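Dear support,

Our group has been running a series of protein-ligand predictions, and this particular one with flavin-adenine dinucleotide is the one our PI (initials K.S.) wants archived with full inputs and outputs. We had some confusion internally about which version of the output was final, so please treat the block below as the authoritative record. The input we submitted was:
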Amino acid sequence: MTVHVVGAGVAGLVAALGLAEAGRAVTLHEATSVAGGRCRALPDGTDNGTHALMGANHAALRFLDAIGARDRWVEPEPEGLPLFDLADGSARRVAASPLAWRDPSKRPPGLTIGGVVTLLRIASGITDQPVAEALAKHPALLRSFIGPLTVAALNTPLAEASSARLGQVLRRIRGTGAARLLVARDGLGPDLVAPALTALERAGATIRFGARLRAMTMAESRVIALHLGEDTLPMGQDDAVILALPPWETARLIPGLRVPDRHAPILNLHFAHPGADRVRFLGVLGGLVQWVLVRPAGISVTVSAADAEADEPVDALAPQAWREIIATARAFALPGDWPDAPPPCRGVKERRATPRHGVGIPPVAPRQPMRNLALAGDWTWPGLPATIEAAALSGEAAAGTVLRT
Ligand SMILES: Cc1cc2nc3c(=O)[nH]c(=O)nc-3n(C[C@H](O)[C@H](O)[C@H](O)COP(=O)(O)OP(=O)(O)OC[C@H]3O[C@@H](n4cnc5c(N)ncnc54)[C@H](O)[C@@H]3O)c2cc1C
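Confirmed final output from the archive:
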């Protein structure tokens, strides 16, 4: 029996490793020449975009443990997230965990009793409305912390983002250690993708790059052949398939399946400028830049829900982003040289970074649409926004489905 896992993003890597370690023969088919999908290293080693994990992301951390890369993910800001407000020049640290807000110095500005009650209501998930509307009476809290958290976690503008989806996030980060923010120390290549491929090889899985699944032949509620590139692969009686693909590819392969069809872009600007001697992660309020990752090898800026920015030329965005980076670096006295002229900048625009997480119930993906077919992928996990954690959980679940079948 062979399990064919299609798509070597996080969901496919997790599913393939779980099955190979359980003793199954696994072939992982990936359309491109690299693994990682939307969480990958570009050919020059740059991350496609900054990826952060939280302590609550247990499935993602389990996977890092399984591939021996857990200690490559570091917590850059254990004292709370440094946030710089361009409007008034204020610089403060805010704890990501609501539990830590008992300490007034770690509270987001604008947090009042009324604001706490509103957050508890959002966390309960009993209503669903745009986050901007849900927090309309608490503009300072929205601006100082909940807004940036929402845009980062849901990759959706505040006027559209679902308060119920934000509630899922708030519930998950309330526990001790759950809101610890982790980033790859050196990059997604060395800290995620390369160790995952090594672990897969060690577990005996076969990986085929340049193998795009063009179509599937299906009969009597089973997949009977995979059409991969120029090849047709007949499926044995006991063979199984896991599609670990983005929604638009899954919908192309399974006609009639309802999938999320609206996506939001994420823009990353990577500046070739050596950063501080240790990894830092800082937030910026009121500008173009939302988050700045400072690594010794370079400085990266994230702009989520970047509907407008994704259409702007990088040359036009880089000078503004650099001015905001310098102001933030100075406000937090980051060591190093911060020249006024922007260093060389590379922009990466991921136009379909994640589905948009608007108000309403998203299409629910069937876990096992056919007897020998299981689905995985960040968009298939209903309890979370489309993230590494959702992808990892879906990969674990799909592997479990195949093992039980
Ligand atoms: C810039 C950016 C920043 C992000 N930041 C964060 C973050 O900070 N934290 C977080 O948790 N999440 C973040 N995310 C989201 C996270 O990257 C995704 O949720 C996750 O990587 C999705 O994994 P996946 O395996 O479900 O899908 P994908 O990564 O899309 O993997 C699917 C794979 O299938 C391959 N494929 C597609 N079609 C075919 C086919 N027909 N045949 C064979 N192979 C095919 C693709 O090439 C790809 O390798 C970010 C995403 C982006 C783009």
